Amino acid sequence: MAQVSLWSYVSRIGPEKFENMYQEFPIEVRSLMADFLENQPWEYVTGSDSFCLELANTLIQRLLEELKKISRNSGVAVHLIHQYVQRISKQDSVQTVLQIKCLLENEKAVVLKQVPRLSVSLNQRKEEMQFNVQIMKLKHKLQQVTMVQQQLRDAKKNMGFHNQMHNVASLHMQWEVLVKEYFQILESAQTQALKRISIWKRQQQLAGNGAPFDENLIPLQERMETIFAMFQDIDRALKDFSLLGEEVPSGLPENMNSSLRTLITSSLLVDKQPPQVLKTQSKFQASVNFLLGSRLLSSSPKMPVVRATIITEKKAQELYQTPIGESWNEGAGDIENGKSVLEIAPNSKTCGAVFKNLLLKKIKRCERKGSESVTEEKCAVLFIAEFNLNSINTTFHIQALSLPVVVIVHGNQDNNAKATILWDNAFSEVERRPFFVEEKVPWSKMCHTLNMKFVSEVGTKQELQREHFMFLAQKIFNDNSLNDDQDRMVSWSQFNKEPLRERNFTFWQWFDGVVDLTKKCLKDYWSDRLIIGFISKQYVHTLLSTQPDGTFLLRFSDSEIGGITIAHILKREDNSAQIQNIQPFTAKDLNILSLGDRVRDLKQLKYLYSNKCKDDVFGRHYSKKTSKTPDGYTPTLITLKVAGGDTTNPVNPLISNEPTWPVNGVGAIGSISPPPPPPPRPLQPPIFHHVEGHPTPPYSTPDFVPMLPYPEGCDPGLQWNGPIFIPPVQIMPPQPFHSQEPFPNMVLNPNDINMMDELQTIEDALGEDFSSSHVLAPLSIVHDTDTNWME
């Protein structure tokens, strides 16, 4: 991950903020050496002990080498560089280091006041430097241990001389102090490395909700290998000390072996997680990485086998307290292809095992808590392996636990399972007992999570805004007086157990429907800021009531999961105004006719709120009309009208006034005249094939005005004798039911049977879902009473 440059922010802030900071260090030199200066551990020179003096001398030597390097290519700054080199050559190294340290700390203080969010990046760099300094301290301390051991060896050779016995005892005590200090530093470095692994795991979990994540494990592998090398160095020192005839302090080898075991057993990570919503009888993949594998197993005659098994939350808690033993075999389900051999990559020197064809055949459900459903039950995939380390003749059992997974057996459980995973990923702690997570969280954290999920899932840079969060807060808390700044707690039940007011779905189910719709059909519109989306119907009325005729906006439907509706203001000739909400469009609708084309077709829509000509902002989303298809046919189009049309100049919504529409293989529909309004039939809908997601015309609901797709080409001159049927597809069955002849055409007789029921029977017989088919052309249907083809 690229590191942030402190100087890049310093150079953007007004120079008056940094007055008198560059008297000891020329600002021109600071600019030329920005990256070098910010990546050196100046702040760890804190005293005058031997290590700090050695570190200061090392840093000044690096500084002089860097100055010489940049002086060759710096042009006008050469004179300043030479002056500075002469100055620091004459002063104490520690003094120069402290000057640079003070300069960087002052710069950082000014920048963080202006850009507080940089603290995370700067702290990460500080942590990396701290670890590197600890390794430098270990190497320095090891040199001292080796020196004392050499002095002890020399003293033992000269035992005949006066006072050598006293000298040996003194050196022995000095050695013990140095080794104790070495182990304290080593333990601190190991703790820091293991903490970085925990942070990496947490970042990996947040990535499941869409957070950015650097999955590169090489830096962590290098840390673990460095610490392992430090253990090897001190182990050799202990053996050399024993060879001198000296007794190693009791408990020291045991403590070292315990720390080494912790290091090794913590080195197996799941670098590619299994799906967190895991469906039985579905294949999936995963992989593990053994960070110390290339160090420990490079000379092994037989590489270890890693086994994958699924375990319950209860079993995960038991393993958290007591690691697995040699004969552990207590899975909660059957996983096929659950074995893979660790391999060392020759180029990267990484060691891992890949599981390409895992298959969970079945799951043993455990006893659930209270009202907990199966989609709230968490499991995990456990990866285990064992190997023998010949150098210390010890067998190690290593294990890695995946992120929590929810096992489902049917696709309709997917939505609720995703809610469980989202909550766990978002609100669990870095270190926790599996798989504990709070039941209530601050609303501010929930807003961050919803925004992260929305942006990553949709694939947009356009984030949710404060007004959106205000609407979402009012929705989840069922309180229209709320605003998103209130410090309020939101519960898991409010998120995905309790249905929203006057609805039969939860907040998450509604929000996930919005995300899915936007990802599939509305990404570009959202990214172009054409959709307000998260806004209540009541507030829409407030916004539009003062706008010109034809002003509209788009919002996500409150009443339908995964729907978007158009609200617009309609002003009549008497200057009275009405806000109309067009019946919501779902993904199925928008796959048939895009949102841009729908907005284009509705002539009563003129301005996108506020005061933007619709053609200017939606124009690039309109479909382009073509004169011929690639195969030479004249293309057909689907257009849209509001049922009832313009209330100031009503038209019949069932009939199009467009020119004749040719029908492939059937011919063209003749001319028809607009029919008289049919008599009210409250119990029988008009004879139109009802496409799922579309209203049945021409009736409207109290909330919405229904929409009608209609074909181009219907001639108003055609004589009308009854209702007209304009289905969305040509009905072409794969083969006839009772003859080898083509499927007979059927002419609709308005006095005959209910064609809605007949078409449903056709759907059932053919196994065809007409609502998902392409709209090709209107179809003339002849009912052949002599052929009982529906038997």
TrEMBL record:
The keyword Transcription applies. It is found in: Cytoplasm; Nucleus. One of its GO terms (molecular function) is DNA-binding transcription factor activity, RNA polymerase II-specific. It holds the Pfam family SH2. Its main location: cytoplasm. Keywords: Acetylation, Activator, ADP-ribosylation, Cytoplasm, DNA-binding, Nucleus, Phosphoprotein, SH2 domain, Transcription, Transcription regulation. SMART domains: SH2, STAT_int. PANTHER family: SIGNAL TRANSDUCER AND ACTIVATOR OF TRANSCRIPTION. Forms a homodimer or a heterodimer with a related family member. Interacts with NCOA1 via its C-terminal LXXLL motif. Belongs to the transcription factor STAT family. Carries out a dual function: signal transduction and activation of transcription. Involved in IL4/interleukin-4- and IL3/interleukin-3-mediated signaling. This is Signal transducer and activator of transcription. It comes from Xenopus laevis.
